[in-house]
Fold this protein.
Amino acid sequence: MKLFYRHFGEGQPLIILHGLFGISDNWVSIARRLGENYEVFVLDQRNHGQSPHSTTFNYYAMMDDLLEFIDDHQIVNPIFIGHSMGGKVAMNFALEHPSKVHRLISVDMSTRQYAARKQHMEIIKAMLAVNFNQIRSREEVEKQVSQVITSPKIMMFVMKNLYRINQNRFAWRLNIADIDDNLENVFEAVESPYTFDKPALFIKGGLSDYIMKEDYITIPKIFPKAEFTTIEGASHWVHAEKPKELCTEFSRFLDHYCEYA
């Protein structure tokens, strides 16, 4: 599958992978900052953003997409930054293709299996409920979605996925129906007989419960060179709430290991 991507800067290649319901556009401001020192590729994963849709939606397929992208663009030794679902794509890929990954950064995501959360269900319910045959404006979509989603932050996140097909027609960029059908695949644990023996950074949002105390024990079993840091005051949406602090952690980790590359 040929993925849509955004490209910034030059130098050591760095690939950013968004999370569930996300798009590459969510990471543009951070990508521009990183692009001052790296060649940054920000991908729309399958069924998201401007990338193609498919009824197949699991980590095997997303890893294959990523491998195809790296081969197509002749990317050598990239750094991976993955948020949430994107973190699990990056982790799985690093375990399967360690020679193709230079460093790994996972933003607010562990290796364990997760249960679907109320927030996920609300987003899906709200997006599926919109009847685009009866919609003529962005405001009408927002009004419908707000009946289910009351958080302004989540509302803004959802509305980023709305686009205009023509003068009188809107649609979701997300393939929300097939994501819903395959949702359990997104929450699977990262399980592998291999280990990734290169440096890896796991960043926790201080207000988030996606990385728990027990994860500090289980993660190093698969990623033995894992480091952990916390960005205080951030929820799971670290990149939206604390972009400056997040970039500081990226730079600290990558600059430190640049000496030993």
Residues 243-258 form the longest helix (16 residues).
